[in-house]
Design brief:
It contains 8 helices and 18 strands. The protein has 322 residues and is an alpha+beta fold.
C-alpha cells in the first residue's frame, strides 16, 4: 500500500532552540496515528510542517508521493482542527460547515445537501441555524470537525481538539471521534499529551521526546513493550527497577504483594490511595526505592507498616533502555 504521508529527516529550529532533530514518519491511508508527548517535545511544530504553516529547515514532506515541502497550505489537501475550534462566531452552524464549499463556487442547494449530510454524520441534525455561542463545547467540537471534513481532505490534523472539554465529555468524544474516523476513512493525525486518549483511539502511537520519535508502534506495543524507561513511565506509569544489572519496567497492575511473603523484592507498605477506579499501594524497598502496585477495588487488607514480598508474573518485566 502506498503511503499517504511521509516525513523524511525533518529538522526545525527556532533560533538556537532545536525543535525537531531529524524525524521520520510514514502514515498509511485511513490510519489514525497519534503524536504523543509532553509540552515542548515538537508535536505542534510537526503538525504545522505537515499543514504547510511552517517550513522545515531541512528534510522532505511527501503527500501521496508528491514533494510538498515548500507548497502553500491551500495546495495541500490537508485540514486542521484546533483546540479552540476556530468557528466563525458571526456565522450559524450551516454557514460554518459550508464555508469552504461556498469558496469553491458550489451551488447553494448542493451546499445545503452536503451540510445536512455532515450534521447527520456528527449527530447534530437540525442545528443548521444555531450560532456557535449557543452550543456546548462538545457540540462546537463536532461542528469544527464537520467543517473540516466536508470537502473530504486526504488528511485531517487534530491539535489537542478535546483539551478544553471536561473529563466525562472528553471520554465520550474519544469514542465519537474514532467512530467518525472509521466511517469517513480519512487519515487522522492527532496530537495529545494524554496517554489514555492515545491508547484508546490510535492505530499507532508515535511517542515524541526532545524533537525525536522515541518509539512508534501500536498501543499494545507501546504499553506492553516500551523501548525506554521514559516511555514506560510516561505511558501508564510503570515502575522502573534496577535489578541484577538490568533496567526493568513493570506495570503497577502486574505487581503482586504478599504480606510477610517472599518475592523478587522485599518492602514496607508506605501508603494507600484510591484514584481512577484503582487502589494504589506505595511500597518502600531497600533496593529499588518506592514502587507502586495497583489493583481494582477501594481497599486492601494490607496496612502501612506491613512487610511484603513483591512478585510479578513471567514476562511482566520488560527490559528497557535507561
Amino acid at each position: 500500500m502506498n503511503s499517504i504521508l511521509e516525513l523524511k529527516n525533518i529538522k526545525k529550529a527556532f533560533g538556537d532552540t532545536v525543535v525537531l532533530n531529524g524525524i521520520d514518519l510514514t502514515v498509511q491511508p485511513g490510519e489514525f496515528i497519534t503524536l504523543l508527548g509532553s509540552s515542548g517535545c515538537g508535536k505542534t511544530t510537526t503538525l504545522r510542517i505537515i499543514s504547510g504553516l511552517e517550513t522545515p529547515d531541512s528534510g522532505t514532506v511527501l503527500l501521496e508521493g508528491v514533494d510538498m515541502t515548500h507548497a502553500e497550505p491551500n495546495r495541500r489537501n490537508v485540514h486542521t482542527v484546533f483546540q479552540n475550534y476556530a468557528l466563525f462566531p458571526h456565522m450559524n452552524v450551516g454557514a460554518n460547515i459550508g464555508y469552504s464549499l461556498k469558496l469553491q463556487g458550489m451551488k447553494k442547494p448542493d451546499i445545503q445537501k452536503k451540510v445536512k449530510e455532515m450534521l447527520e454524520l456528527v449527530q447534530l441534525e437540525g442545528f443548521e441555524n444555531r450560532m456557535p455561542g449557543e452550543l456546548s463545547g462538545g457540540q462546537r467540537q463536532r461542528v469544527a470537525i464537520a467543517r473540516s471534513v466536508v470537502d473530504s481532505p486526504k488528511v485531517l490534523l487534530l491539535d489537542e481538539p478535546l483539551g478544553a472539554l471536561d473529563l466525562q465529555l472528553r471520554r465520550m468524544m474519544q469514542i465519537e471521534l474514532k467512530r467518525l474516523q472509521k466511517k469517513l476513512g480519512i487519515t487522522f493525525i492527532y496530537i495529545t499529551h494524554d496517554q489514555e486518549e492515545a491508547l484508546n483511539m490510535s492505530d499507532r502511537i508515535a511517542v515524541m521526546r526532545g524533537g525525536l520519535f522515541e518509539q512508534i508502534g501500536t498501543p499494545g506495543e507501546i504499553y506492553d513493550r516500551p523501548k525506554t524507561a521514559y516511555i514506560a513511565k510516561f505511558v501508564g506509569s510503570a515502575n522502573i527497577l534496577n535489578l541484577n544489572g538490568k533496567c526493568l519496567a513493570v506495570r503497577s497492575e502486574a505487581l503482586e504483594l504478599k504480606k510477610d511473603g517472599e518475592g523478587y523484592l522485599a518492602g514496607v507498605v508506605k501508603e494507600k490511595s484510591f484514584a481512577g477506579g484503582m487502589l494504589r499501594i506505595a511500597v518502600d524497598t531497600k533496593d529499588c526505592g518506592e514502587i507502586v502496585a495497583s489493583r481494582h477495588g477501594i481497599d486492601s487488607p494490607l496496612m502501612p507498616g506491613d512487610i511484603v514480598g513483591i512478585t510479578w508474573a513471567d514476562g511482566a518485566a520488560v527490559e528497557v533502555e535507561p
